[in-house]
Amino acid sequence: MLVIEGVLPFLAPKLWRETFRRLSELADGQIRFLGLTSLVVGVLVLTVTG
User: Fold this and answer.
1) Interior CA angle at 23 toward 19 and 26, to 5°?
2) 50: helix, coil or strand?
3) Radius of gyration of the chain (CA)
4) How far apart are CA 29 and CA 39, in angstroms?
5) Residue 48 in 3-state DSSP?
6) Is 1 helix (H, G, I), strand (E, B) or coil?
7) Phi/psi of residue 49, each to 5°?
8) Where are the domains of the chain?
9) Strand, helix or coil at 4?
10) 3 state SS for 6-46
């Protein structure tokens, strides 16, 4: 997981910084929805590949 997370800051640090700037401007509900979506996708990937 850390390898995947490290690719964007290594290859495109300006894009990574801009992405986090935009994320910090989202409302709490939007951030929670993104978190829930990530959880569901992760569970689906683990279920399909497991």
Assistant:
1) 150
2) coil
3) 13
4) 15
5) helix
6) coil
7) -90, -15
8) 2-49
9) helix
10) HHHHHHCHHHHHHHHHHHHCCCHHHHHHHHHHHHHHHHHHH
Q: Which residue has the tokens 């910084």?
A: 17
- Angle at Cα 29 formed by Cα 43 and Cα 42, nearest 5°? 10
CB 50, CB 42: distance < 8 Å = no
Rounded to two decimals, what is the model's pTM?
A: 0.68
CB distance 23 to 31 below 8 Å: yes
Q: What is the pLDDT of residues 3-43, one digit of tens each?
A: 888 998 999 999 999 999 999 999 999 999 999 999 999 99
Six-digit token pair at 3? 């390898």
